[in-house]
């Protein structure tokens, strides 16, 4: 079994050597660094399962290091050590989320005991922090700060059983975030069930959610477990919750209050243990004001709110997402497409993206399907985005394009006869030949029946 990986931070070289030996002897794999900056770089390369840091460090101190770790990896525990500890410092550190605070000189056995407690706490979900950081957000491809902050909040929320409302524009990735929340939660090994509340007719949605018994209505030929029962022990995503009809909102509220569903036609409720995540692109406050959404249900669902930014608000993610999607789609289509031309990337990054990540995926799928070379050109991206193939040309380019199109048209009319084409253009034959040579036009290609010039 692989040894737990610990990161130890101290600017004292002797302490680093001593702690490396003690931690290795305690059954751990230890990495040691001498500053907070080195620690952050090491975490970016390989996330440990626990960070132990001195408070007094050159540059950033241990508390600043902790704040950065908490923001980037909220589930990663930190133990702080100091030779200058005071009770107020310890209280403040614990209130801010530090796992524990030990004063130097500390008892090595006490430190090992605290390490074991921290690792036991973080492994209670069945995942180590390193595994969680690698796996739970695998579908959320991002490098933007706004998304990192959102994912940090999501990671913290996942540890609880609180209902979460995910808001965001259509196509922004609400279901992907919901799946990430589920994977990071203690329910991660249970089922994840998603239902689009706006895609199922009202008369069927109740049976789909809560189930029905045989004979409950015409066509009910057998007992049917609803999605609440299917998600028992796991997570149920109620997508587009803002489109749920009002009568069903009342029944959903009762289910959330009683933690039990009553299948259609049944006389007895069935207990369910489900974590609810809901999602919507609608303004629910406006829907409540318009009498289209129940306020009491809103507060049941919106214990914690997470808002996904539109793709246009995180443009630094566009090239990363486009590359990720291209790799996936090229493998599925068995095509040797490896990347984008620089101007194609520029067009992707600067596009409006009203359809968000879903639209980007569709664009990448289209350019991959139409690609005839390993590198995606600008023209394919413009076609997929329905952009003009060319913007306003400068004068020389416009003049050159006009000349070429004009000469091509003349040669077609004259059946490739240069003398006739020059006469129509009002130019002498020698001058006309120079124009043809300038634009690389062979008049023989325009003659019916083969090459030749006149």
TrEMBL record:
Gene3D superfamilies: 1.10.8.60, 3.40.50.2300, Homeodomain-like, P-loop containing nucleotide triphosphate hydrolases. Residues 5-119 form the Response regulatory domain. It comes from the Bacteria. GO terms for molecular function: ATP binding; DNA binding. The modification 4-aspartylphosphate is found at residue 54. The keyword Lyase does not apply. It comes from Silvimonas terrae. Keywords: ATP-binding, DNA-binding, Nucleotide-binding, Phosphoprotein, Transcription, Transcription regulation, Two-component regulatory system. InterPro entries: AAA+_ATPase, AAA_lid_NorR, CheY-like_superfamily, Homeodomain-like_sf, P-loop_NTPase, Sig_transdc_resp-reg_receiver, Sigma_54_int, Sigma_54_int_dom_ATP-bd_1. This is Two-component system response regulator GlrR. The lineage of its organism: Bacteria, Pseudomonadati, Pseudomonadota, Betaproteobacteria, Neisseriales. One of its GO terms (biological process) is regulation of DNA-templated transcription. Residues 140-369 form the Sigma-54 factor interaction domain.
């Amino acid at each position: 079994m692989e040894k737990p990986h610990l990161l130890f931070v101290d600017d004292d070289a002797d302490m680093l050597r001593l702690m490396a030996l003690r931690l290795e002897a305690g059954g751990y794999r230890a990495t040691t660094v001498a500053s907070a900056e080195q620690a952050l770089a090491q975490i970016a390369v390989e996330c440990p399962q626990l960070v132990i840091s001195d408070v007094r460090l050159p540059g950033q101190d241990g508390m600043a290091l902790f704040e950065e770790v908490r923001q980037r990896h909220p589930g990663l525990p930190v133990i702080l050590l100091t030779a200058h500890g005071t009770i107020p410092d310890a209280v403040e550190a614990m209130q801010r989320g530090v796992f524990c605070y030990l004063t130097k000189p500390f008892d090595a056995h006490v430190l090992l005991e605290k390490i074991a407690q921290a690792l036991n706490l973080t492994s209670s979900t069945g995942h180590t922090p390193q595994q969680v950081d690698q796996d739970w957000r695998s579908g959320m491809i991002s490098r933007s700060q706004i998304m990192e902050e959102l994912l940090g909040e999501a990671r913290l929320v996942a540890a609880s059983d609180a209902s979460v409302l995910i808001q965001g524009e259509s196509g922004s990735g609400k279901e992907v975030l919901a799946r990430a929340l589920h994977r990071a939660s203690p329910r991660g090994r249970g089922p994840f069930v998603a239902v689009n509340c706006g895609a199922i007719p009202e008369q069927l949605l109740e049976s789909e959610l809560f189930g029905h018994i045989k004979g409950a209505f015409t066509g009910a030929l057998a007992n049917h477990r609803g999605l609440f029962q299917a998600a028992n022990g796991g997570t149920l995503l109620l997508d587009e919750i803002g489109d749920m009809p009002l009568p069903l909102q009342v029944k959903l509220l009762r289910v959330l209050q009683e933690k039990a569903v009553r299948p259609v036609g049944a006389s007895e409720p069935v207990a369910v243990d489900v974590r609810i995540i809901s999602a919507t692109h609608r303004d629910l406050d406006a829907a409540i004001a318009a009498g289209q959404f129940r306020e009491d249900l809103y507060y049941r669902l919106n214990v914690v709110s997470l808002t996904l930014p539109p793709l246009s608000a995180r443009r630094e993610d566009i090239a990363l997402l486009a590359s990720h999607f291209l790799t996936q789609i090229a493998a599925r289509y068995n095509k040797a497409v490896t990347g984008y031309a620089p101007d194609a990337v520029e067009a992707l990054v600067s596009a409006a993206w009203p359809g968000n990540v879903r639209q980007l995926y569709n664009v990448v799928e289209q350019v991959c399907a139409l690609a005839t070379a390993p590198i995606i050109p600008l023209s394919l991206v413009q076609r997929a985005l329905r952009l003009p193939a060319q913007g306003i040309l400068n004068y020389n380019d416009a003049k050159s394009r006009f000349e070429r199109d004009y000469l091509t048209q003349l040669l077609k009319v004259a059946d490739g006869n240069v003398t006739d084409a020059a006469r129509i253009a009002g130019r002498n034959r020698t001058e006309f030949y120079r124009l043809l040579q300038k634009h690389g036009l062979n008049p023989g290609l325009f003659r019916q029946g083969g090459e030749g010039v006149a």
